[in-house]
Amino acid sequence: MAQLLYRIGRFSGRRPWLVVAVxxxxxxxxxxxxxxxxxxxxxxxxxxxxxxxxxxxxxxRKIPGLSGGAGMVVFRTTDGSPIDKRQRQAIGxxxxxxxxxxxxxxxxxxxxxxAERAAQAQAIADGPAQLDAFERQLPDGPAGEAMRQALAxxxxxxxxxxxxxxxxDRARLVSADGSTAVAHVTFTVSRLTLPDEAKIxxxxxxxxxxxxxxxxxxxxxxxxxxxxxxxPAEVAGVVxxxxxxxxxxxxxxxxGLPILTALLxxxxxxxxxxxxxxLVQMSSVTPVLGLMLxxxxxxxxxxxxxxxxxxxxxxxxxxxESIGLANGTAGNAVVFAGCTVLVALLALNITGxxxxxxxxxxxxxxxxxxxLMAVTLTPALLGLVGHRVVRRxxxxxxxxxxxxxxxAMSTVWALLVLLLGAAALAVVAIPAQDMRLGxxxxxxxDPDSTQYRTYQIVAQQFGEGVNGPLLVTAxxxxxxxxxxxxxxxxxxxxxxxxxxxxxxxxxxAGASDDGTMLAFQxxxxxxxxxxxxxxxVRTLRSLSPLPDGTTLGVAGQATGNIDxxxxxADALPGYLALVVGISALIxxxxxxxxxxxxxxxxxxxxxxxxxxxxxxxxxQWGWLGRVFGVHDPGPILNFLPVLxxxxxxGLAMDYQLFLASGMRExxxxxTPARPAVVAGLRAGRAVVTAAGIIMIAVFxxxxxxxxxxxxxxxxxxxxxxxxxxxxxxxxxxxALLHLxxxxxxxxxxxxxxxxxxxxxxxAALRRRDSAGPRPDxxxxxxxxxxxx
Length: 788
Hints:
Mean pLDDT: 87
Distance between the termini: 21 Å
Helix content: 55-70%
Number of helices: 26
């Protein structure tokens, strides 16, 4: 591989415009593929085979009108006074005209619905007296008896109807003080397939309307559309990365090359990924993940090659030879490191969770493009700029620098660093024990957004549970085709549901034509992400089957979140074990040591759980909420723990590879074990620090993204890099390797014979580079052994 990359580097350096033209052509093809194949991105997540998916499929077959997406529109007076007649009429006209919008199945006028409820209640109240009066006029005989039996059935229907009205009494569309009304919007397709154009049409229809004295807001299901992939916060992250590159590389030209290659590779990776969105269901956060990873690793991978090339130029190496050597050494390590990230991302497909596998595949596409750009376009650009990547006065400076042999760190200091570093991460990890998983609701949106206002208004005026009602189905053992039988079944099931804790209201939502399925809307006491709602869902599911053979199913936003969260939690241990196993095998071959893979793996697990703890403290407990924009703490994004395992594993193994391989190289060249640790650390710490800061800067830019689900993802990746690169890889592991001494590099002879020789840094090529300093030297030795 090193020889191949060496030749690719020399070719790209000699034919730079050809390489640039090829990549620009690939960009054009990617753009064309995007325009031809782009589809609709989903604003939610779904896992086939879950209980929610099963119930939703049943509803789609039996009661189709209830399986579509839904949202709310909130009308509220500006002064808190009751909505007057003129305003009610305007709201009625506005809701009526909204029924003609694309993909809209129905829009319920809250005042018409409340008037219908009142009329129904009055009819039920007046019904017995009317029936009594009618019965007194009936004749005697068989004809009268038949009519009396019919009247008895009607009385029973009135009684059952009264009970249903009582059970649904608190499921209101107009607030008690009359100042607020909610119009429910239902769509003809599910929320996952509802196009943004349909939501924008509804949002604009109500948002652009003007009713004097009324404010209009819409819920998250209507307001959430595909956000901008690039925001000022993300641009700020790139600016910070550019500053780090300028400080690290010393010239604007050298600093600009990694950013240029990263941006071009990112454009290709994201366009290619989005071109597949019409073929596979892709969530709105999926391209954001590709954007994060492609930008971060794209800058870092190019940085390693540029840094190696600059060092060689200052030592007097010919430009084209230096480009080839940099590509064959640092580029070889980049390819190997990129492959570890690709393996971790692609392994997400084995979790059995489709949307997570798609996210991993998109991330892998962007990382793969970043690797290819680094080893082809970066050498081409280096050939174009020539000696301008270094200042003239820098040439020869490193070659003339005195070489100081590395000295071992103090054992006391190593022990202190190990204990303090591990203890600090362990303390940060403590909150992880309290982790709850879920998906964000409207309360997690920006406080100035319409969906946040809707969530808060509904919670205040109608109760938190109205923001996430449950849909309960009852599949009867015997069809209820008779009206009385159907009402009795509805009352029986509704009463059972209402008897459970934290149930505020139960209202009939529909029935199948064949009388085998009934549907109910259940309003819980708390919101969709609360602990009590989660327990209510489990309780309702545990009731099935009922003694009479009726089976219950529970669906809705809250249950979907619960099902996905539980399935992800179940997948996490197996995925973590797989990733850790892969990690150990890779490092066993690279470092030819039994203990180094164990140490590195334990360090990864420690930094991972510290990241989990930080996420819980900030996003679930609300610590430092003002700093990170967390105003309403809630459960952790359900797919985040699994996703972090894959991404942070790949990045952690990058850091471990480039730092520990320098230590291994020094030890293999005769440096004692303990000084070799310091030699490897000195050789890599500058560029690892720069690369780590770049990663953190890029990921941190997404903490303030417009997309709610991207914020904890950006925080988790930024904190994970901080904990792993700066605490574990540069403090804890060097200290532990020092304490282990020569035992750190022990490998049984039988295992040494069967393990393949893995040259991930192009050692054979470096032996050709006579300008390189000794392995135990302090100056930036062998750029290929440095990585962040």
